[in-house]
Amino acid sequence: MNTLSPVVVSCGEPAGVGLEIAHKAFDALRDEVPIVLLADRRHVTGPVTELGALDHFTGNETALPLLHHDFAGTATPGQPDPRNAQGVIDVIARGVDFVTKGDACALCTLPIHKKALKDGAAFAYPGHTEYLAALAGVERVVMMLACPDLRVVPVTIHIAIDEVPNALTSELLENTIRITHDALRRDFGIDAPRLAVAGLNPHAGEGGAMGHEEITLISPLLERLSQDGLQLSGPMSADTMFHAQARAHYDAAICMYHDQALIPIKTIDFAGGVNVTLGLPFIRTSPDHGTAFDIAGTGVADATSTIAALRMAWDMSGKRGH
User: Is residue 195 within a helix (H) or strand (E), and if so which, with residue range?
Assistant: First the structure.
């Protein structure tokens, strides 16, 4: 086992901005967060310190530490090569193997391009999160978006809005709340997490005038979980729970659907949000943006979210005792 366990960084789609922002993040964090990039050396244009193995990492490297992984294709900015799809998938699995064995303290994943993975390797998962859950053998994980001023967790994620009411079950909501509560204690050092739970309908249903899910599903569950000792408030009207004064009264917001969660956090901190997967046996963070093919290779990509994701991964690993 490596005595200095770094955050391993999977390269993601090599035709995107990931490799560029990895260099920028290393320059910003070299004295703060130990980082090792998993990528094909041929795809990386900036200076690196190539490691023969992960346990060769010292933390004193002056250039971005890199652990080479062979890819089948070249990397042209903005033009994904389907030959690289399997390499992208395998690098993620390799990163999971490192953190599972304890050779790395956390995994930070750079953006992938789902269509390129499907086209090149028949990738069977909707995205990173589902693939990581499968690798870990975990049935249910939760997506959190976090920045210094707000943490949000959507209960339902990438589904059409008209599918949300049927997808929103008591079991799903309870699992989401409990996973979030446990992660806030274990990974964020919050002994007694306070969770604010949004309603599904406008004005949280307004007593049934605008919908009944708050009355029939959300409120009864919150009452039962509160009896178990969880600190819960809600169901709350989503249009009044994200201003600064309201945010001071909770540690995370549980939201019923994708945009209810992501609009407020991207409004508050568009560049610095971090995607965190809760419920895995290891720590995984990611920048909250995509491959940005339109600016790949131009040098203008903003590394703020990746820097925040690496800091958060390192901080979370400290909470877990690494």
Answer: strand 194-198
Instruction: Dump pLDDT digits (tens) for 237-256.
Output: 999 999 999 999 999 999 99
Q: Is 147 helix (H, G, I), strand (E, B) or coil?
A: strand
pLDDT (average), residues 15-43: 96
In the chain, residues under CATH classification 3.40.718.10 are 7-140+271-319, 149-267
**CA-based end-to-end distance of the chain:** 12
- On whether the CB atoms of residues 15 and 75 are closer than 8 A, the answer is yes
CATH of 7-140+271-319, one of 3.40.1050.10, 3.60.70.12, 3.40.640.10, 3.40.718.10: 3.40.718.10
Neighbour-count burial of 52, counting CB atoms closer than 10 A to its CB (0-12 exposed, 13-18 middle, 19+ buried): exposed
Superfamily in which the 149-267 domain is placed by CATH = Isopropylmalate Dehydrogenase (3.40.718.10)
Is 18 within 8 Å of 291 (Cβ atoms)? yes
Q: Output the pTM of the full model.
A: 0.93
Report d(CA 115, CA 242) in Å as an integer.
Answer: 34
Instruction: Name the binding residues.
Output: 128-129, 158, 203, 258, 266, 275, 284
The annotation places the binding site for a divalent metal cation at 158, 203, 258
Burial 120-132 (b: 16+ CB within 10 A, else e): bbebebeebbebb
Instruction: Show the tokens assigned to 197.
Output: 């739970």
